[in-house]
Amino acid sequence: MSEVTIAEIERRLKVCEENVKELFGKTNKTEHNLVAVTTTMNSVMESLGELKAAVESLKSRPATLWDKLIAALIGGLVTGFITYMLTR
Asked: pLDDT digits over 42-68, tens only?
């Protein structure tokens, strides 16, 4: 091989090494961004779960109030009927 060819090979090798370093840098940035996105997504999913639980508890609240009202009415009617039967 001639000197020119060896010099050209060394130059191309140096360019390739710089390209590899640049690609590794981009890969590391991408990995870092992926970790950040995953962390944010986990936080959003956790908040969504809490919101779902809160909405479910709010949805069931009127039903429990009606259940309590009906139970109180039935209890009052039963107590009134028993009192009526005992005082007769």
From this structure: 999 999 999 999 888 888 777 778 888
What does the buried/exposed string (b/e) look like for 54-87 if buried means 16 or more CB atoms within 10 Å of the residue's CB? eeeeeeeeeeeeeeeeeeeeeeeeeeeeeeeeee
Q: How many CA atoms lie within 13 A of 27 on its CB side?
A: 6
The pLDDT value given to residue 7: 83
3-state secondary structure 72-87: HHHHHHHHHHHHHHHH
d(CA 32, CA 44): 19
**CA 57/CA 49 separation, integer angstroms:** 12
Is residue 88 helix, strand or coil?
A: coil
85: amino acid identity, one letter: M
User: In this predicted model, what pLDDT tens digit does every residue of 8-32 receive, in sequence order?
Assistant: 888 899 999 999 998 888 888 888 8
